[in-house]
Design goal:
This protein has nine helices and ten strands. With 293 residues, the chain is of the alpha/beta class. An eight-stranded mixed sheet has the order 2-1-3-4-8-7-10-9, with helices on both faces. A two-stranded antiparallel sheet has the order 5-6. The longest helix has 15 residues. The termini are far apart. 43% of the residues are buried. It binds thiamine diphosphate (TPP), iron/sulfur cluster and magnesium ion. The site of magnesium ion (MG) has 9 residues, from helix 3 and strand 5.
């Protein structure tokens, strides 16, 4: 984690002045506030911090926080973030995007990102619908969920995202709720401080299109793992059991954490300095190309 050279004096300095078009009451507001508070409290240097998104309502995030930003393509935030991290591994890289983005079209990148274990943080705004395209069923919509794309109710079961993440080899797996900003801020701070790929699934009400999974629906079901002193987030089997819980009771908090080597740790070419700092003026690649002439 890269700390501040240019210290922020207050969280408002992270405002960009860009107009936001989220619906009033959208859970994305809480996520943005928690993210800004986390960046501020960790004293991250905005010039050494990058927010990368995909496409979706929540993926508007890079326009709304004054750090470096990249609003990429639907489902492609992880590969873009991977390139950035490898180009300059001193940067704090935060990926953000929706459930459709990360668990649908971007699922392949998500699972390989987890096992690759770059030192990045991935916040998934999980509203259980495709918000931007007007409310279609998403991979996390529960069985029977009705929308314009599944008017008779979706036949598939909703994806068990936390179990997928665990099985893919994640080293930090957490869940939080957009309606509980202090909890979410704490999870984001822990995720950024974790050395490795941190996956944080955020339950995010979409007040316009998802009339089932509302603030109240989540509030009636969520409970905090941190309240149970016997819960051990380094115990893989315990974490798998929690990852399977969904429905009447939904755990939020740190499910699992493991210390493992990161991808950057084992790349000899960036052992001494980031790729961007390498001098490329006097490199002769002719000998490498000779076999192909
Ligand atoms: C390659 C590609 N396919 C489809 C789309 C259309 N599209 C844009 S956003 C989106 C889904 C957004 O849902 P989600 O990722 O859950 O974000 P939310 O809007 O709910 O925050 C889709 C299908 C696109 N922009 N690009
Ligand atoms: S459509 Fe849903 S997710 Fe999109 S801004 Fe509105 S409330 Fe938020
Ligand atoms: Mg969504």
């Amino acid at each position: 984690m890269s700390k501040s050279l240019k210290m922020l004096e207050n969280v408002q300095e992270l405002e960009t002045g860009s107009k936001c078009n989220w619906c009033p009451g959208c859970g994305d507001f809480g996520i943005m506030l928690a993210l800004k508070q986390a960046v501020f409290e960790l004293k991250l240097d905005p010039e050494e911090t990058m927010v990368v998104s995909g496409i979706g309502c929540g993926s508007q995030a890079p326009h709304l926080i004054k750090v470096y930003g990249f609003h990429s393509l639907h489902g492609r935030a992880v590969p873009v973030a991977t390139g950035m991290k490898l180009a300059n591994h001193k940067m704090n890289v935060i990926i953000i995007g929706g459930d459709g983005d990360g668990y649908g079209i971007g699922m392949g990148h998500f699972v390989h990102g987890l096992r690759r274990n770059l030192n990045v943080t991935y916040l998934i705004q999980n509203n259980q619908v495709y918000g931007l395209t007007k409310g279609q069923t998403s991979p996390t919509s529960d069985h029977g969920y009705k929308s314009k794309s599944t008017p008779e109710g979706v036949i598939e079961m909703g994806m068990r995202t936390m179990s997928v993440s665990m099985a893919a080899g994640a080293t930090f797996v957490a869940r939080s709720f957009a309606g509980d900003i202090p909890h979410l801020k704490s999870m984001i701070m822990q995720g950024i401080q974790h050395k490795g790929f941190a996956h944080i699934d955020i339950l995010q009400p979409c007040v316009t299109f998802n009339k089932i999974n509302t603030y109240q629906w989540y509030q009636e079901r969520i409970y905090k793992l941190g309240d149970d002193e016997s819960y051990d987030p380094t115990n893989r089997m315990m974490a798998f059991a929690k990852a399977e819980e969904w429905g009447d009771k939904i755990p939020i908090g740190l499910y699992y954490k493991e210390d493992r080597w990161t991808y950057e740790d084992e790349l000899p070419m960036i052992a001494e300095q980031p790729l961007v700092a390498h001098d490329i003026n006097n490199i002769d690649i002719t000998p490498d190309l000779e076999p192909y002439f």
